[in-house]
Amino acid sequence: MRAMGKMTSLVRIFWLDLKLAFRNIVRQKRRSVIAIGAVAFGITALILANGFIEWIFLDFRESTIKSHLGHLQIVRPGYHEAGKADPYAFLLPDIIPELKTSYEPQPIKTVAPRISFSGLISHDESTISFIGDGVSPQEQEAFGNALQISAGRNLSADDPRSIIVGEGLARNLGVNVGDQVVLLATTASRGTNAVEVTIRGLFSTVTKAYDDAAIRMPIETARHLLRTKGSHVWVILLNDTAQTDSMLAKLRAKLEKNNLEIVPWHALADFYNKTVTLFTKQVYGIRLIIAVIILLSITNTMTMSVMERIGEIGTAMALGVKRMGIMRLFVSEGVLIGCLGGMIGLLLGVLFAHIISSIGVPMPPPPGMARGYTGQILVTWNIALESLALAVGTTLVASIYPAWRASRMQIVDALRHNR
After folding, report:
1. Tens digit of pLDDT per residue, the chain (419 long)?
2. Within 13 Å, how many C-alpha atoms sit on residue 4's CB side?
3. Which residues is 166 bridged to in the sheet?
4. How far are the Cα atoms of 73, 298, 323, 330, 400 from residue 409, in angstroms, in the given order?
């Protein structure tokens, strides 16, 4: 009963402080509107900046996964470290093991075999090096349009003697859709073999460096060129990227028994990881700048409020209000300004994000990427809660010093100020 009574008393004190704080905010309309506006403006800007970068992360991640890496890759142990030097020592068997799980819905969308190689591509008098992937045309359809066909058509099982070429490679070689080229590669027996193919289409991905050197062809044609069987990688595409880590844990133990290694996409996406690190640092910088703006604005507002109400503070203390009560009152005002400004900023941020996303933000190709894009603003629950927490936390910190100064005033000096 005592605990319940004490809790009730604390709730009443808290509610009374909020009521008094709200009255003081309403009484000083001009100053309060400026302070709340500063908080709301900062939070709106933070939500839009955070939301734009969050959308970039999502779009870049999905494009990286679906255009090249997949969610998971099954390889021989050591393939990603030493496979470039001796790729034929890491070949997988022809038959893909059963990877379906026992629960519904099935998380695995498809498993696509892939064989990687390099060689020379020739057209007329021009010869340059390339990196190639032999893929299954039917299963690649499950990867969607992240691999954008900018000219011609994608691979087809009905046209095995055709390839698609990265835009940069086609430009450097001087070829276009319909041209005949010759591919020269080292076979599994360390000999050389050549095959003449037709360029069926040109493609682009999110990574310009890849487009400048890459070709793709039907996996059976690639095996014929390399005079081998099997594949280097089984690329697993999931229905949901969020299931990557759980599926990695489920399949790892099963595959290790067969001398196989499973690697998640984020362990292979070096450019993506560096981009995320760079943009994350920029977001922290934006948060710091906005926090400083709010801190200075609220500190100035609360200091002016204290200076104008010295007489009231002295009267309240003379009537028995303790120093802690004075401090609590001014802190409550600051926090209430932060809550109001944060909520207004959050609503405006979500509204502007929706409007901007419906219109789109045309963006040029960033460094290292092959194409531009139309940006959007993605506001998640984490962004909303973090922004609101920043508003409340910053105003709380900004209110402490002015509130402390108000609570340390001498009653006699404060009352004399009324004269």
Report:
1. 555 555 666 666 666 666 776 777 777 778 778 888 888 888 888 888 888 888 888 888 888 887 778 888 888 888 877 777 777 788 887 777 666 555 556 777 888 888 888 889 998 888 899 988 888 877 766 776 667 788 888 888 888 888 999 888 888 888 888 889 999 988 888 888 888 889 988 988 767 778 888 888 888 888 888 888 888 888 888 888 888 888 888 887 777 777 788 888 888 888 788 888 888 888 888 888 888 887 777 777 777 777 766 666 677 777 777 777 777 777 788 888 888 888 999 999 999 999 988 888 787 766 655 566 777 888 888 888 888 888 888 888 887 777 777 777 776 665 665 55
2. 1
3. 203
4. 68, 21, 9, 14, 15
Question: Three-state SS for 344?
Answer: helix
Other beta carbons less than 10 A from residue 268's beta carbon = 15
One-letter amino acid at 269 equals A
Contacts 24+ apart (CB under 8 A), 304-310: 304/31, 305/24, 305/28, 305/31, 305/330, 305/333, 305/402, 306/330, 306/402, 306/403, 306/405, 306/406, 308/28, 309/24, 309/406, 310/409, 310/414, 310/417
Q: How far apart are CA 380 and CA 50, in angstroms?
A: 9
41: left (phi over 0), alpha (psi -120 to 50) or beta: alpha
Helix axes 323-359, 270-308, angle to 10 degrees: 140
pTM: 0.73
Q: By CB neighbour count within 10 A (0-12 exposed, 13-18 middle, 19+ buried), where does 415 fall?
A: middle
Q: Which two tokens stand for residue 186?
A: 């080292």
Domain coordinates in residue numbering, the chain: 18-62+273-416, 77-259
How many Å apart are CA 160 and CA 163, to the nearest integer? Answer: 8
Angle (deg, nearest 10), helices 2-27 and 29-64 = 110
Quick one: tokens of 97?
Answer: 């093991």
**DSSP code, position 349:** H
User: How many Cα atoms within 13 Å fall on the side-chain side of residue 58?
Assistant: 14
What are the CA-CA distances from residue 51 to residues 46, 165, 266, 387, 393 (Å)?
8, 34, 21, 11, 21
Query: If you write DSSP's letter for every residue of 119-181 in order, what string do you get?
Result: EEEEETTEEEEEEEEEE-HHHHGGGTTSSEEEEE----TT-TTEEEEEHHHHHHHT--TT-EE
